[in-house]
């Protein structure tokens, strides 16, 4: 009997040693965060949360999985293949209109970094100039922002070709070549190769969905509200730390993505700050979203015939409060 009692006591001690004080679970909760692109500063806060222990502090063991061009993250999170993924705000709306019930949890970019880059030598002053002058525009067709630009400016004077996804070979040699870009990425690479870029945010034209959005499915949110709340808070803390001091995290991401050098990592991290920060000075409102922004986006997508029906804006997101 004594031997059985001691064995039971030892087992109990082992179980308690692995208990998470916040949730009462044995050990941290293991989850996957699927990215929609390679490790770059646009994901810096997520990697900072992993590196600096913010996930662990909130009882989470997060595996961050890099993505690539056209990674189907909205389908993955909606199908429950992964509990968390990075998507765009318009993907959330389009998915919900088709019954794929995904929910936005944290929006990194308050101003959408999607833009169009052309050579500064062309002397363009506004994004409209790209569409009123002959030239080539490399851009993904079928995306809402592409449809928005076509509806607003027309594509009569520009030849639309497939996006090079960051490859600047044609941009470098063809003065009349413009291309889609993230204003925190390709323009920096263009400067390094000696071609001065002129960049225009698509948000300046009036289309500004939240971007680099942490999302989950409605089912996962309803089944695991405590985990989702801890995830949101850990991510917010990670972004607070990354914005304050990105160097250590950039070094880690640089080892995972050797196509971007240390100088570009730093420049990109600096360039994106103004697109991420909200009104607070302490970063307490990082990632927060509003009903009015979602309502505007939903109506734009309806006007573009990108969705067949309006979806309730308040169901598209939660701020974790």
What can be said about this structure in brief?
The chain is an alpha/beta fold and 321 residues long. Helices cover 42% and strands 17% of the residues.
Description:
This protein is 42% helix and 17% strand. The protein has 14 helices and 10 strands. It has helices at residues 2-17, 44-51, 54-57, 73-79, 89-97, 128-132, 144-153, 169-173, 186-192, 218-223, 225-244, 247-256, 262-276, 291-303, and strands spanning 29-34, 60-65, 84-87, 102-109, 114-119, 135-138, 158-161, 177-182, 197-201, 211-217. The strands form 2 sheets. The chain has a 5-stranded mixed β-sheet with strand order 2-1-3-10-4, with helices on both faces. It has a 5-stranded mixed β-sheet with strand order 7-6-8-5-9.
| Spatial extent as radius of gyration | 22 Å
Oligomer: single chain
Secondary structural class = alpha/beta
Residue ranges: pLDDT <50 for 5 or more in a row? 1-24
- How much helix is in the residues? 40-55%
| Main sheet: strand order | 2-1-3-10-4
Number of helices: 14
Strand share of the residues? 15-25%
Element pattern in H and E? HEHHEHEHEEHEHEHEHEEHHHHH
Mean pLDDT: 91
Largest sheet: 5 strands, mixed
How many angstroms does the end-to-end distance come to? 50 Å
Overall geometry comes to: globular
């Amino acid at each position: 009997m004594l031997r059985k009692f001691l064995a039971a006591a030892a087992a109990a001690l082992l179980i308690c040693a692995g208990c998470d004080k916040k949730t009462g679970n044995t050990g941290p909760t293991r989850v996957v965060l699927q990215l929609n692109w390679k490790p770059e500063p646009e994901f810096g806060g997520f990697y900072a949360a992993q590196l600096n222990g913010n996930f662990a502090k909130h009882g989470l063991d997060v595996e961050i999985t890099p993505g690539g061009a056209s990674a189907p993250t909205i389908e993955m999170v909606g199908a429950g293949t992964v509990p968390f993924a990075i998507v765009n705000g318009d993907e959330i709306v389009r998915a919900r209109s088709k019954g794929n019930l995904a929910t936005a949890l944290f929006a990194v970019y308050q101003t959408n970094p999607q833009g169009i880059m052309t050579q500064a030598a062309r002397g363009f002053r506004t994004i409209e100039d790209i569409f009123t002058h002959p030239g080539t525009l490399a851009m993904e067709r079928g995306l809402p922002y592409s449809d928005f630009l076509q509806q607003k400016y027309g594509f009569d004077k520009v030849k639309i070709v497939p996006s090079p996804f960051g490859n600047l070979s044609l941009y470098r040699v063809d003065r009349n070549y413009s291309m889609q870009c993230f204003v925190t990425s390709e323009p920096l690479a263009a400067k390094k190769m000696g071609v001065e870029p002129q960049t225009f945010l698509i948000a300046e034209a009036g289309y500004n969905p939240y971007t680099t959005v942490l999302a989950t499915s409605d089912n996962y949110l309803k089944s695991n509200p405590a985990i989702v709340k801890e995830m949101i808070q850990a991510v917010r803390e990670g972004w607070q730390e990354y914005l304050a001091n990105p160097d250590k995290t950039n070094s880690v991401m640089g080892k995972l993505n050797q196509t971007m050098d240390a100088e570009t990592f730093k420049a990109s991290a600096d360039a994106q700050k103004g697109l991420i920060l909200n009104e607070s000075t302490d970063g307490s409102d990082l990632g927060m979203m509003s009903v009015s922004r979602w309502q505007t986006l939903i109506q734009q997508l309806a006007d573009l015939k990108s969705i067949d029906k309006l979806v309730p804006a308040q169901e598209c997101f939660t701020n974790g409060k």
